[in-house]
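Let's do one together. I've listed all components of the complex below, 817 residues spread over three lines.
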Amino acid sequence: MLAFSWTGLILSSVIQYGSLQPVTEFVNHPQSEEQITGAFIELDLDNDGKKESFVPGVNQPGEQTFPQPISGLAQQGKEVYQNMGCLYCHSQQVRRKGFGADFERGWGDRQTVPRDYILQGRVLLGTSRTGPDLMAVGQRQPSWEWHYLHLYNPRITANPTRDPNKPDSIMPPFRFLFKVQKIGDAPSPDALKIPDNFPEDKAPEGYEIVPTDEGRALVAYLLSLKLNYELPESRFSE
Amino acid sequence: MSPLISFFTSIDPRQKTGVPLKVQLSEIDRQMRVPVIMFLCFAVLWLQIGTFFAMVSSIKLHNPEFLGDLSWLTFGRTRSAHLNSVAYGWANNAVFGVGLWIMARLCKVTVRHAGILITAGIFWNIGVAAGVFGILSGGMTSIEWLEMPMQVAPLLALSYAMIGVWGVIMFRYRALGHVYVSQWYILGGLFWFPWIYMIAQVMILWVPARGTVQAITNWWFAHNVLGLWYTPMGLAAIYYFLPKVLGRPIHSYYLSVLGFWSLALFYNWAGVHHLIGGPIPVWLISAGIVASVMMVIPAIVTAINHHMTAVGNARAVWCSPTLRFIVFGAMSYTFASLFGSAMALRDINVVTHFSQFTVGHAHHGAYAFFTMVMFGSVYFMVPRLLKREWPSAALIKVHFWGTAIGIGIMLFALHIGGWIQGEMWNELKDGAPVYSNLDVSQALVKWFLSRSFAGILLTIGHVAFLVNFVWMLAGGKSTRYKEGPTLIGDKEGSTL
Amino acid sequence: MESWDGYLIFIAAMGAMFFTSAVLVLVWALKHKQFSKLNQGARVIFDEEEPEGVHTDYFPGEAAKAREMLAKEEHKPLKHATR
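Okay, and this is what the predicted structure of the assembly comes out as:
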C-alpha cells in the first residue's frame, strides 16, 4: 500500500514535472505539443509584417526565460540560509488569492506554481510562518543596508525608537555574520550605520562593523528572491 | 558447511533439539537483557539532550537575544538539533528497545547474535551524534525531518538494517502460529521505515528530484515517519501492554486488525496535506485531503477498542505506572488523529497551516501519544529485564505529573496561540491586512512563554525519569523486588 | 537533472516490488488463517508467568494497597451479577 501511494504521489508528479521547462513570458508555436489554452498572444517576431499567434509553453532560441537561475554569490547565500535554518520561520511560497492573505500582504503578486521552483537545486518551501514569507522579499526590501541592519539586530529595523509600547521583532540576531574591524584609511562602504538608540550594538571608537563573506552572500540571496515575472499558468491578474 | 551458511543457520533462534520447546517469558527477558537495556540507556540519554535543545529553542522564541551570539546555537539549529535528537535519538532507540523486546516475547524467541545487534546499535548512535553535531556546526540541510548532513545517512541506514533485521529474523522463526496484532504493527514499521528513509534521502539529497517534487517527497517522508514508524510502534505497545497489565484480552481483536490494515492503507497518502495551497498539482492535494479524512476510521476504531478494554478498570489503570502513561498516550492518539484529519480540511488548514498549531499537533502525536506510550513501556520492561523493582514510586509520580501537565499546557498554548497567529496573518479589512508582521510576532510572545513554562515541567519529569532509571541500573535500594508485581509471582527470585 | 528515464525505471521497479510484497503478505495472512479465530489470537500475550486475569503492574511499594483496593472494586460487579 505504501508502495502504491508512493508511486501515486511521487512518481506521477515526477512524470508530470519532467516536462516542465523555463519559459519566456508568452511564446510557443501553435504547432507545439505543449498547448496551454486561453493564453495566447499575437506578435510579429520575425518582422515580416505578419503577426503570428503564440501560446505559452516552449521557448524560442535566444530569448530570456523564466524562472531565472540565481547568481553564484546568491547560491552561496542560499547555503547560509539553509545551514542557519531560516526556513524554520520563513516560507517561500505564495498561496492563491482568496486562500489566506498572502497576496494582500505583498508576499507576491501572484500564486507560485511548480515551474517557479524547477531551477532550484534545493527547494525551500517551508511550512512555518513565524516570520513573513520571503518568496519576493528582494522586491519588498531591495536595500542591502536594510538587510544588514536587520540581520545584525532585527530590533533595530523593527523598533528604531525603542518605544516599549510598540511591537518588537522576535527574529534572532545574526551578529556572527558580521565582523568588527579597525577602520582603515576610509570607512568601508558597507559598514553598518547603527542608530544611536542602540549604543550596545555599536563598534568601539575607531572600529567598524562589516558583513562577513557569508553575510554578504546571504543578503545577495535574499535580494535575488523575486517574483517579478509571469508564467503562463500564473499571471499577475489572477 | 561454509562459514557463511553456518552463520545463516546460526541466526535461527529456535531452541536446539533436546532443549525443551517451552520458553518462559522470564527466559526471553533474560536473553534480551543486554541489547534492550542498551537501547533504553541511549534513549534516555538522547531524551535529556533533546530536552536541553528544546528548552534553548523555546526560550529563544520569546527572548531572541538569549545565546543569540553563538552561531552554533542559533534558533534554526537548536530546534533542528532538538528534533533530530528526540526523533532519531530518543524515539528510535526506544522503538528498537521496546519493539524488539515485544517482538521477542510474542515470537517466543530471542536474538542469537546479540553482539551484532549491540554493535549496530552503537553505530546508530554514533551516526545520530555525528548528525546532530553536523547540524550545529553548519551542515544542516534544511529539509524537515532530514536535517542531518547527508553523509551520515549511509551509516544510519546500514546500522538500521543490522538492527531491524533482527525483528524480521525473530518473526521468521517465531514459535507461535498466530501473529498478534502488535507483531503486525512492528513488522510493518520495520519494513516501512527504511523504505521511506532511503527514498527520501535519495530523492532529496543524493540525486535531488526536480523542483517541488522534493517538497512532496519530503512530506511523504516526514508524515510517514510519524504515521508508519512511530505510530505503529506506539500502537503495538498499547496493544501489548494494555491487555497485558489488565490481565484481560483486548476488547475486540477484530477491530485491532482492522485498525492495522486501514492505517497501512490510508496513512501514507496523507502527507501532502502539509502542502495545501502550495505549488504542487491540485489533484495531489485533494488525494492527500481525502486520505487524511479517511484516517478518522483507524482513529475511531482504535479509540473504541482501547476504551472498551480499559473501561471499568480505571483504578487498575491508576495503580499501574505503565498504564497511566499508556492510557494517556492512547487517548492522545485518538485526539491527535482527529485533529490531524480536521487540519487537512481546506477551511481549517488556511488558518493553521503555517502557524504554531502545526507545531502543537506534532507534539500531540510525537509526545502526548508516542513518547508517553514509550515511558509506560519502559516502566513495565526494565523491572523484568533487571529483575529489580523501580527504586522510587515518588519519582515515577513526578515523572507522570510533570509530563502530563507539561504537555497539556504546551498543547493548549500552541494550539490556541497558533490559531490566533493564523487568524492574524489572514485577517483583512477592506482588502488590506489588519495586523503588521510585528503585531503577529508580538502576539505570539505570551504563548511562547507558556510553552517555555510547560517545557520546565517536562524537564522536571524527564530528570525524575533519568534519576530513577540510573538509580535502577545502579542497583537501587530494593535490589530485588520484595512484593510481587511489578514482577509477577513469588517464584521470580529463584530464576535469577 | 535532464534525463528522468533512469530514475523512472528505478522507482517504478522499487514501487512494484513493494506493492507486490504488500499483496503477498496479505495473501499469506489469509492463507494461514490469520483472520480466523481472532478471539483466541488475542490471548497469545498471556502465559503461566503472566496469566490472564491477573494485574501485572503496580507502583513499587504500593502493590499490596492497590490489590486490596482493586479487590474491593471487583466485588461490586460480581454482587451485581448474582443479585
